[in-house]
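Design job #97: recover the sequence.
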């Protein structure tokens, strides 16, 4: 992580750094910041201020349901309904880019139930994918 002059903290993608210069600048890691807590409301490490903490409900069919039962997308994941062919999962997180793409990765096995804006966002992504393949 790095701190900007504004005081904002940003994660650095070390796998994408092509070169670095040694400078006299020093970085002191703030011991008050616990990374696991700092990033607890997101999937991954992207803190996007456009997204707020909210409840997300998704309906998932097999085989993705089995995958989620064994490897949750987020530590807040819990099954609120389980039936023969599907489960409904609840999350309490900031549904930013990385979370949205994890949902998209599940393809036709997932349906976003709430919030309506996220349902619309996933539908729009799917429509754009479909239109580019026609």
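Job complete. Output follows.
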């Amino acid at each position: 992580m790095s701190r900007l002059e504004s005081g904002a903290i940003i994660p650095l993608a070390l796998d994408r750094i092509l070169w670095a210069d040694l400078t006299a600048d020093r970085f002191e890691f703030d011991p008050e910041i616990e990374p696991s807590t700092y990033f607890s409301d997101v999937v991954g490490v992207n803190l996007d201020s456009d997204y707020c903490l909210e409840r997300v409900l998704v309906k998932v069919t097999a085989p993705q349901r089995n995958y989620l039962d064994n490897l949750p997308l987020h530590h807040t994941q819990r099954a609120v309904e389980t039936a023969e062919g599907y489960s409904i999962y609840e999350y309490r997180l900031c549904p930013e880019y990385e979370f949205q793409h994890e949902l998209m990765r599940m393809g036709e096995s997932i349906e976003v139930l709430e919030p309506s804006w996220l349902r619309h966002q996933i539908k729009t992504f799917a429509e754009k994918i479909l239109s580019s393949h026609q």
